[in-house]
Design a protein that fits this description.
The complex is a heterodimer. By secondary structure, chain A is α+β, with helices and mostly antiparallel strands. Helix content of chain A is 24%, strand content 17%. Chain A has 12 helices and 9 strands. In chain A, helix 5 (95-113) packs antiparallel against helix 6. The longest helix of chain A has 19 residues, at 95-113. Chain A is globular and about 65 Å long. Chain B folds into 2 domains: 19-130, Immunoglobulin-like (Sandwich); 135-378, M75 peptidase, HXXE motif (A middle domain of Talin 1). Chain B has 12 helices and 9 strands. Chain B has helices at 8-11, 134-166, 170-186, 188-193, 197-201, 217-227, 232-251, 259-277, 289-314, 316-334, 353-370, 373-378, and strands at residues 36-40, 45-47, 51-53, 55-63, 69-74, 80-87, 92-99, 102-108, 117-124. In chain B, strand 1 (36-40) and strand 2 form a beta hairpin. The chains are: A alpha+beta, B alpha+beta. The A-B interface holds A 91, 126, 128-130, 183, 210, 213-214, 217 and B 260, 263, 321, 325, 353, 357, 361, 364-369, 371-372, 374-375, 377-379.
Chain lengths: 428, 379
Amino acid sequence: MTDTQDATTAKSGDAKAPSRRSLIGWGGAGLALGAAAAGGGVAMSRVGNSIDGAAPAAADTGAAVAFHGASQAGIATPVQDRLHFAAFDVQTDDRAEFVQMLKDWTAAARRMTAGKAVGDGAYGGLAEAPPDDTGEALGLKPSRLTLTIGFGPSLFEKFGLKGQRPAALVDLPQFPGDNLDKTRTGGDLCIQACADDPQVAVHAIRNLARIGFGTVNIRWSQLGFGKTSSTTPGAQTPRNLMGFKDGTRNIAGTETDRLKKFVWVGEGDGPDWMTGGSYLVARRIRMHIETWDRTSLQEQEDVFGRDKGEGAPVGKAKEHDKPFLKAMKPDAHVRLAHPDSNGGVTILRRGYSFTDGTDGLGRLDAGLFFLAYQRDIRKGFLPLQRKLSAHDALNEYIQHVGSAVFAVPPGVRDKDDWWGSTLFSKEA
Amino acid sequence: MRAARLSVVTAVATAAALTAVTGCTEKSKADGDAAIKVTAADAKCDTSAKSVPAGQVSLSIENKGSKATEVEILFPDDRIVSEKENIGPGTKYQLTAEVKAGSYEIACRPGMKGHGVRQKLTVTGSGAVAKRDPQLDKAVAAYRAYAQDQADRTIPKVETFTNAIKAGNLKAAQDAYAPSRVGWERTEPIAESFGDIDPKTDTRADGLEKGQKWTGWHALEKALWQDKKIGAAQKTLADQLVTDLKDWQKRVGKAEITPTSMANGAKELLDEVATGKVTGEEDRYSHTDLSDFKANVEGAQQAYELLKPVAQKNDKALTTELDKQFAAITTQLDKYRSDKTSDGFVSYATVTKAQRKELSDAVNALAEPLSKLAAAVVK
């Protein structure tokens, strides 16, 4: 993979102050796999300036992100500050009704991502009828809202889709240490709503859920934060709730080649309807915050394989220095997750921190809502997590409590296209 | 129940064609000569005039029948303009009301029940008379009759319940509790529109305001299931419940019901389910929530079915969806029948979280299109 390239670019990595987006725009997630995508970290500083140049949207947290495209927005899009993620179950057995809902959702998503209200708006309509739009996003900017749809394995048991399930969409095994809550696991489909304004993201999920009532219902949903400032050149890599810089290296949205290699489903990968799509793994990872906080600084740094202040790999001075993996403890998180330790395995991380209050025992119910996109789960998250779940020193302080996988279809091409058209147009 | 709710039934009253007002004194010239003679008997209701000018209208009523009767002036949707109850055989009564121009009926109800014998009454005069849709008037009248019937049927069931309490029979009282609530739950938006009855009969412990004495079904529910004892206080509460519900029964005829309030009332019944029953809060001691749940759905469906002919013309897709979702929720609920022959339900305590979510999903699936019914009716 890109080791050699990274090694060379690493040297120039310090030269410029990279933009915040260039460093972390792609890696808000990565706690559990903090360095899984480490192959890209320094490369990002290389292209740092061009990110802001190439993607002006990233510089304006209020702007709109294009909804149409070959791939869905919300994957390679610079990561927004906030998340509302919802998994849905299908309630109808009528395929036509489900397809109509996908079309209705697409129309609503097209409007909301452009900063417009759903349907006939939130006021001014018939006094006797509830308004189409719920109204709480009135007056707010588009806030770079992206809405990304995914189809879970269980959807392919319905609507005669059995033969269409991609081989790359595997059911994840029970990993050692998993303590999955059924009510936070799985789902026939999902919507990932990301925006720089939390109210815009929540509004989007709420309105899609409302349109879907009777056809689908929410199985579970998760709010996430973790991005607190807008794009500012030179801003720091954000820290996860354990206090460590997270997502130092990840795939950047401008790295066309690596996106093609690791994220987008290519022609011939099969099935055809997925070409231009990707596969999403979502994991709710609870952190044992209180025990972590009582852990000595030395152990904390050993667990990650980076220092807490700068984020530099063991034995190195700077965050973006090329890690020398053998200097780290054998069970250090970064060492285990690094592409060099995994035959080059690289995933695009896009997760968020979460805090859902406390757990009734006086402990924070907090952690990382991990989201990773990849070209094939069998060659991405699955081998990585097999390894991490067995050996990662971090496991003492975390627990995976929710899990889901989704096939994320290609983008909505134009105003006549709709979410899932490549899957649902082909056979009845 | 829901504490401090805005009653839709009342709130939308302005949408109704209020063609009459009582108590206005501007035209007080009418005198005894202008009175309409109403001769009531066991099977007839003769009136001396079919048309009178707007203003003060007097009815000179004489009951020549063998039963006590009740005479009413009614709007086209059967709302009562003015009434006199309990006019005994052989007695006379003068009923006076201020009536605006429009079409009315005079009804005599021998035995003080049923549809009664009706006579048309046209009140002539100027003044804006809002246009009425006869099809919708019919729907409202039928719904009012349904609500009245539910109230009438509730009283004996409540008495079975309260008699068991007064006899100190815990088991019998527990058995009679849920059935005593069905008619009330089916038509709850109407009861709530009166404002003062619901707080007395259907308040939950958490809904009490400061200084409010806890009366009604739920106070008794707690005694029967949690405290498991019946004392003098409960017997007093039982009597009070009957008194309060008889008040409700009497007032159903005067409730301001419009097509819009019917539609919104149906939606409100589903709101009741969504906020009180699915969560198990309503009947927290007895866990008979599913009985209330079912009654709310039935009442909503009744209102819907009556409005459906009009709604269907305006929004066929909506009524198709509503038919489907009413059927779906009924199928869901039937899974929880305690046995196939009775109309009882299993204890809500035995319904798992996953099952409650299924029920909640069914409620959302029905309530969302139901929220669009009012618009489809007035379109």
